[in-house]
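Narrative of accomplishments. A recurring question from our advisory board has been how the design workflow behaves on a single, concrete structure rather than in aggregate. To address it, we present the structure tokens for one chain from the evaluation set, followed by the sequence designed for it. No filtering or post-editing was applied between the two.
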């Protein structure tokens, strides 16, 4: 299926590994030129060398207020336009609510929420000019509360509402805005969690994966490429009537309406 993305320009944050890397690789395979942003320059440089299209590396800390505008400006200077913004960067700390500090909460919102908000603001006029698209990678934790995911759930819930608010503005300005809520995806973060689960329950990693999947109500964990495929489809004209969608890609983990 030709998604007609070839020749477009995308910014992908959190692109050094995991879901973000898979998204960048998939969009490049569809013919898009990519700006990849993350803090790890070495990993981004390695990714850029493997790309089949032009790739601009932006090794930045998106928690800093000036970083978002710098990424957008560099992208426009290099490619002349922006057609797609994928806000994927951001991780939040798990833990007992009473052990989480103010700094933990500040950090949780600083990258995933405020970094994305600033990028949307900085890129908006360029996306308006190209009638482009924003896709926010959020997470199912924003739909169901969990005692050990108070920060992440709160950030994700705010990010969902922010997506809907931009959707409302996007109708007027011609910018499509959608979001994807991944469930458990096989990334480094999940590996660390599985290692902790295995140590706590005295089982090997294979058993830990099977037990955690069962406890989550899914038959298996997802692959980064499966999230990337959803991004490419949402970004394409074949999905042009999707606006304001909050797409769960979680193997059936979320059963609420």
């Amino acid at each position: 299926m030709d998604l007609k993305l070839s020749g477009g320009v995308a910014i992908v944050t959190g692109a050094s590994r995991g879901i973000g890397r898979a998204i960048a690789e998939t969009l490049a395979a569809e013919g898009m030129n990519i700006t990849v942003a993350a803090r790890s320059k070495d990993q981004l440089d390695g990714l850029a060398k493997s790309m089949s299209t032009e790739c601009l590396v932006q090794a930045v800390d998106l928690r800093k207020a000036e970083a978002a505008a710098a990424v957008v400006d560099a992208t426009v200077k290099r490619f002349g336009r922006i057609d797609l913004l994928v806000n994927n960067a951001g991780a939040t700390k798990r833990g007992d609510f009473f052990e989480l500090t103010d700094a933990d909460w500040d950090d949780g919102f600083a990258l995933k929420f405020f970094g994305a908000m600033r990028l949307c603001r900085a890129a908006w006029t360029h996306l308006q000019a190209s009638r482009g698209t924003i896709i926010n990678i959020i997470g199912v934790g924003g739909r169901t509360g969990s005692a050990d995911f108070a920060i992440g759930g709160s950030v994700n819930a705010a990010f969902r509402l922010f997506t809907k608010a931009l959707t409302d503005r996007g109708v007027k300005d011609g910018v499509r805005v959608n979001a994807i809520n991944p469930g458990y995806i096989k990334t480094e973060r999940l590996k660390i969690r599985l290692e902790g689960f295995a140590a706590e329950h005295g089982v090997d990693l294979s058993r830990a994966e099977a037990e955690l999947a069962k406890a989550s109500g899914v038959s298996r964990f997802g692959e980064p490429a499966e999230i990337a495929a959803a991004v490419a489809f949402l970004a394409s004209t074949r999905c042009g009537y999707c606006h304001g969608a909050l797409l769960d890609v979680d193997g059936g983990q979320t059963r609420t309406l």
